[in-house]
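Morning. Coffee machine broken again, so started the prediction first thing and wrote up yesterday's gels while waiting. Chain of 54 residues, entered below exactly as on the submission form.
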Amino acid sequence: MLHYAVVFFVIALIAAALGFTGIAGSAVGIAKLLFLVFLVLAVVSLLFGRRVKA
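Came back before lunch.
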């Protein structure tokens, strides 16, 4: 998930450098969404990932 967020961020940087502001804005929005999903899944995984049975 984090890999895809980084890929979309790089696409946004390249598109912004070439002047495609609409595509860059969309790619940044997708990258933000994917990064937030990654953070939520990471926190849930840390909280519930390892259950030690006594």
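The chain has a mean pLDDT of 87. Going to sketch it on the whiteboard this afternoon.
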